[in-house]
Each structure stands twice: as C-alpha cells, then as structure tokens.
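2024-03-11 09:14:02 INFO receiving multi-entity request
2024-03-11 09:14:02 INFO entity count = two
2024-03-11 09:14:03 INFO echoing inputs for audit
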Amino acid sequence: MYKNTIAEVCQHLANGDYSSKELCQHLLERINRFNASHNSFIEVSADSALQAAAKADELRASGSAAPLLGVPIAHKDIFCTSGVRTSCGSRMLENFIPPYNATVVDKLNAAGTVCLGKTNMDEFAMGSSNENSYFGAVANPWDTNRVPGGSSGGSAAAVAARLVPATTGTDTGGSIRQPAAFCGITGIKPTYGRVSRYGMIAFASSLDQGGPMATTAQDCALLLDAMAGFDERDSTSIDRPAENYSASIDQSIKGLKIGLPRQYFTSDLSAPIADALQLAIDELQKLGATFVDIDLENQSLAVPAYYVVAPAECSSNLSRFDGVRYGHRCESPVDLEDLYKRSRAEGFGREVKRRILIGTYALSAGYYDAYYIKAQKVRNLISQDFTRAFESVDVILGPTTPTTAFKHGENSDDPVAMYLNDIFTIPANLAGLPALSAPCGFVEGLPVGMQLVGNYFDEGRLLNVAHQYQQVTDWHAQIPAEVDA
Amino acid sequence: MQWETVIGLEIHAQLATRSKIFSGSSTDFGAEPNTQANAVDLGMPGVLPVLNRQAVHMAIKFALATNAEIGRRSVFARKNYFYPDLPKGYQISQMSLPIVGRGEVEITMDDGSVKTVGLTRAHLEEDAGKSVHDAYAGQTGVDLNRAGTPLLEIVSEPDLRSAKEAVAYARKIHSIVRYIDICDGNMQEGSFRCDANVSVRIAGEEKLGTRAEIKNVNSFRFLERAINFEVERQIDIIEGGGEVVQETRLYDADKDETRSMRSKEEANDYRYFPDPDLLPVEVEQSLIDQLQQSLPELPESRKARFITDFELAEYDAGVLTADKATADFFEAAVEKSGASPKLASTWITGELFSRLNKAGLELGDSPVDAERFSGLLARMHDNTISGKIGKQILDQMWDSTDSADHIIESEGLKQISDSSEIEKMIDDVIAANPSQVEEYRGGKEKLLAFFVGQVMKASRGKANPAQLNELLKQKLNG
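2024-03-11 09:21:47 INFO inference complete, emitting structure
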C-alpha cells in the first residue's frame, strides 16, 4: 500500500481494494515506526486523520466524487491548520494553534484529502538542511547521516520514506526543489501568485510560493489541480483560471525546445551530477525534445540579490512575533523593551536571528539604496535573462543542486556555503517563474535532481515534460532499502 | 526683533468606509474593546491584507476637490516599528509614491483676505490600535478595534504664517472632507486629527528654523492655543540664547502647554520599503472621470452660486457654505419655505446658530430640522407671524416636535393684519393716553415707540408691525 502513488491510491480506493481508513492506518503505523529516527513529522494527527478517513469512506459510499477523496497527505508546518498546532519549526510558535486554515489547506480539504500531520521544516522556512528546526533535524531516508535538504525537509523525507504519498511544501529560494532533489522525489514551485499564500506563514512575501511534493510528476499535477487558483484573500494571487494539470501531462513532448544554460553547465559542476543530467538529456531527446545552449548572464548575481531581498522582507514579516498577542513570551518581563527583547531572543533560533539582522541592516537609512534597491535592480536583470531565453526555448533544464545531500553538520558553521546550495534554484524565485525538480539518477547511492524552469503559468508544461520522462525512467520509483518493507 | 512663524500641518482624516482598509472588520466607533478586530487586524501568522477600494476612491475624490495630482500608480510601503498597539510590527502606509500629489486650497481670513495654501501630498495608511493605560493596575491593555481603520494623511506645505492661518486651513480641509463625504470630521472621536510642525525665524530670513512637531491636538481651539504656546516657547529659547531642538511635542490641553515627547535622536529608523503583500494601485482615467462626476458642488463654487442666485452678501454666503450641512439646510429651507434667501440666511446664521451654540450641538443634531424650520420661515414670509413671534415659536419648536403651524394655531399667534382691527386698537390707546398724544403732536416724536409698544401689548404681540407703524403715524398725525 505504501508504495502506491496518489494516482494509484485513487484507483484502489475507487475499486474498493482498500479503504481510506485502512490506508491511513497503515501509513500511521509506518510514521510511528520511522518518525523517531527520521523526525520528518512535528505533529502526527492520528485520531483526526482516522476520523477524516472514515468520513471519506462514508462519503465515497454515498457517491461523492471529490477528486482526492480519502487520499492521505501531510502539510508542511508552515500552513495554518485550524485547531492544529502550527509551529513553523520555531519555539516562537511552539504552542500556537491557529483558529483558521490556510487557503491551501481549505482547498485540499475540499478536494477530499486526509491530513496525517504536520511535517518538519527549517525554522520559518529559513535553511537548506532542515537543521534549523526547533524540533530537531530530519534524517534523509537514503542515508540517515545526511540532511534531507530544506526548508521543506520533513515534507521531502516523509514522501521519500513512503510515510505519506504526497505533502505540501513552500519554496522561497528552493525549499521545495532542493529537498525534493536530495530525497529523490518530485516537487514543483508554481508561478508566483498561482497558489494562494493566505495562511502560509510568511518568510519573504515576494518570493514565497506553496506547491506539492510527491513521488511522481503526475501526483504533483493531481495535487496542484486542487491547490492552484485565485484567492481574493491574497492580493498577489493571480486572477486567472488554473489549468487542469493532470489532464495535460500525457501530451507528447516531441518538438519541445529545451534550453541548457551555459552558466549552469560549467567545469564547476560536479562530474557525476553532470553525467546524470546528460543521461536525462539523452532520454528527453529520444522523446523528441531538442536542446539548445542559452545564456542566463546574470545568474551569478542571484544569490547575493536573494540574500538582501529575502532577509529584508523577513525582518519585517517576523516583527509580528513580539510576545504580545500569541506565541512565545518570556517569563516576567520588567518592561516593554524587556518583553520584546527576551521573547524574541528566546523564541527565534540562530539562523532566523541572522536573517532578521541582515534584513534590518539592508533596510536601514543610508543602506537602503545600496542594498535593497540594488538587489531589486538585479532581480529585474535576472527576470529579463529569462524573458529573453523564453523567446527561443520552451523549458530550461539544469541541475537542481550543486551537490547531493550533505552530512548533518557539514555546512553548519559556514552560512555562505549553506546559502550556495540554492544557487540554481533561487533565480526562478527572483523571477517568479515555475520550476520543478525530478529525480534523474544517483551518485554514490544518493539521489540527483534535475530542474526544469518554465515560463510564467507554464507549470502544466513542466509537469508534462517530467511525467513523460518518468514514463521512460524509474528513478522516481526507487525506495530507500531501509524503509522498503 | 521681528519674528516670523512658519507652520505646516499634517492632518489625519479617518475615511468613512464601512470596513477597514485591509480587512473586512467594521470601523464603527465605540464598540467593546477588540470586538472589531479579525485575524488580519490582529496580525496573526500567515494572514494577508486586501485593499479596500472605497478608501482609494475617497482619496481620489480628495485629490479632485483640491486640484491635486492623482498618483496614477501609488505604492503601499511598510513603516517598521515595534509597539503593542501595532500588531504586525509595521504600519502599512505610503512613502515615495502617494495616491495624492501636489494640490492647493484657498483660505479666507476674518479680514476677508484670501491666501492659497499648498498641499504637499496626501497618502493612505492604516491606523494603529489603542493602548489602554488605566484599565488594569500596573498593566497596559491593547484595544485593536481601531487598528486598520483607513486614514488619509494630508500634508501641507509650510505656507502658514500664524496660528489663525493654521486654524483657517484646518477648518478648510475639515470642510472639504465633509463636503465630499469621505470623513465625518468628528474631532472628539479622533476622526480628524491635526499635527502641527512649528518653527520661527527672524522676519526676512530665508532659512527655516528648527521645527517641533506638536501632536495630540483634538480641536481647532486647542490647535490655535498649542501653536501660540509653541511659538512663544521657541522665541523665548532663541532670545534667551538657546537653540530649539527638533523634537515631537505633546499638547496638554489642561495645562495649555506643549511638552517634549521624543527628540530626533530617539526617533525610529522606520526602514520603509514597498509592501510585498500588496500590488501597486493603478488608477484608470475612467475611474477618475466617474469619481469626478460623483463629486458634489464644492464650497468655493457653491459660495459663488449663493452670491449670484440668492443675492447674498459675500460674508453670509461664506458662512452658509463653509459647511455642507449648513448649505444643504439653507437651500432646503429656501426651497421649502418660499421665503427670501435673506430671511432664511438671517434666521439660520442668527437664531438657529445661537441656539445650537448654546446647546453645544452640531447642525446635524438640531432638534429643528430643515423641514420644520422652513415651516416657520414660511409663516414669517407670508406675514402670518412677526419675527418676534417667530423667535417665541422657534423656542417652542426646540422643545417639541410640533410644527410652526400647529403652534400658531393652538396658541392663537397669528399676526393681525386686518387694518380695521389694528385701527380699533390704536384708537383705544390714543383715547387712553391723551397727554402723551399731546406731547407727541407737540414735537416729541420719540413717543411713537411708546404707542407702538402699547398697541403691540394690546394685540399680545400679534399686530403686523409694519402695518401698525403706518396706521399709527397716520392716526397721530391726522
């Protein structure tokens, strides 16, 4: 049962091969078995999940046709879930129970999904290793000594270990794609504005975007069908009907033009990763795609620009965590300043504090033009690079990450080394473009991800390409031996 | 030494939208604390602001009413600072691209002189909540009902040269926002608040002096007093050899003084940056046209029309049009009563206003509305009653819901205009006062008033005064 994709689960549930309750029970047992060592879940909602599953089974019996009825999923703990603790991986929100659902949660509930729990993450989505969680690091199921990536590390690890067939994630600089690559699963960051941010705790508002993570592109499409769409509660969500992604994945990709950025395929790229990508290129060529070299000239500016914009926005977004209305409050504050200082000093972890400091500095009088305005200009240049590229190609292909999953603690003392992990994923966030990571091989037993970047609102095409690729490859179907029983 | 005062005002007008600027909560005043604050107003994690279009429309109407530039693309920015009544840790405001750009208004001083005052800009922003310091001993409460209420911050150029000019300007803005119905103007409830930037310099000097910003002024009277106090304070400092420091000062109405709140050094670095949760506001010409058409007649043109159409004196027209409610009341009264505009004007600015002032009421709360008031004017206009009886009737109307006609009828106050009846009363008075008649006829013409009084008394005030005068003179001289 645990090996089933969502597409298969839907079929089995429809056939009556097993019930949602049986499936959820089975997965909850697996979570129970592996979570102590993997730590991919912060919160397991066994009782409410089984109730919801039973309800879904009843609805099915009475003829309900909700598209994902009874399908178990888990939400990254950044999405507010009414009545269920939403910590965002932080001590600050250790006891925060929101009285409302994120729009993504509402939409997936409406589609019939059953939520098994909340997945672990880097605190406030800041990190590339999931080591910044107040609730502890997460193990990569392929090698528990290694990180699953971040910030959606729990979501990726849970899917890779087949504890749940799909999860939600968020991606501000690669937080869906990088862990998807490290854990050998598929994940897509949609076009900025395609999925509502309402109820998704903000890290950097102009970059954050929610999306699905699953074993296959088809499953991502099924989830995205339910998640995408305009939301009047999010002013940056785009008022344009969402496509039927799962219906368009079967199209042939013959004649598709794929661009290979020269700036990605340099001698700096590790040889085994380059080799894995070459094999993927060969497969796609066999499917009828053609390849051309393109230039994304300002790519090298992406990481520095990102590390001004994202911290600047986060420094302001996280001001609401002040110990006044909800969240962590220090013991016996002597005055207002003491309340603020100690509540925030105790509530936030090191990386969050580092970014708040960087962002506050970048927005300060006298530095604003030199940092924030300059970074916005760079952002425009990077967008223009992509606009030019998409005049001649349909999709851009490259590595998702410069390396495979690294060991716990390996980059902990060097924030810049850690930040450089996102060198290939950040540009799509800065430009607001959709981007997907799908498994395309292994290096020394660790998964390698390939990244596909599309033009605005072209997530359908990305899912189509990845799905066609997954029809002729089986990297996505590999399961870590330790959990495959 | 000759000193010159330089003043610029920042006026916060609370926009009269039903819901808040970025959430669906009600903006009603006076509800139980925190009953009008939803997840967005509370700054809960993950929630997002959605702009209230009505607030944008109101800001554009203000721009149209003050001949100001309209920011065709305006941007909301975050003003970052920590305070318990500021739930998000930042206020959503506008910084470099406001919705309203440069404009101007004319103010008329008591001596009739007219001055043009420049508007620097006006921008939309959300109000903060309130800290409640007296509800719990040793603790501070926070009421977020007001958090997120839409404000239009209207910034003037430093064009004002006296407290009186500042007050005239503030009154003018007050009049405009009420005319175009974007703010209720209630200063006690804080719907219309003025901060004054005040500095002094030696007359003729180009360079501006160091300014102090005075906050917490909640009436026009206090605005004048606060500025005057501040001007004297600054002159005293400079003449005493000291230097004025740039700071924010609070006006204390009880002590009639300003005192330091925070200095420039203590000022926050607000770290403004564009709010990534909100898109820039793009204003289409079609919207501007539509709002232009919905704009009511403004004070200037209404005053001009009153002078032309109603043949009112400039001063009277100015008084009647300073406030939209008064002008509407006046026009309704003239139309419904058929009375002359002069009569209506005199009675509104005289009898009605003095009664309202005495009762401390706004025209909108007048116990006698335009409908009943015009009933009274009509009876004076057609000579059913005299002005004297009119005042008496107005008093009775004030304390009841009766119409003027009803009071005239039930009290028998109808004016006597039947000349034979008046003549008979005159004859009786002449017969009863032979010595006075003799004196009058002997040249003591002042005694006419005595006879008028006697006849009026006999008529219980109801004799038509003009007719009485005429007939009395005839009889005495005849």
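2024-03-11 09:21:48 INFO post-check: Chain B touches chain A at residues 39, 42-51, 78, 80, 82, 84, 87-90, 142, 269, 271-273, 276-279 (CB under 8 Å).
2024-03-11 09:21:48 INFO post-check: The two ends of chain B are 71 Å apart (CA to CA).
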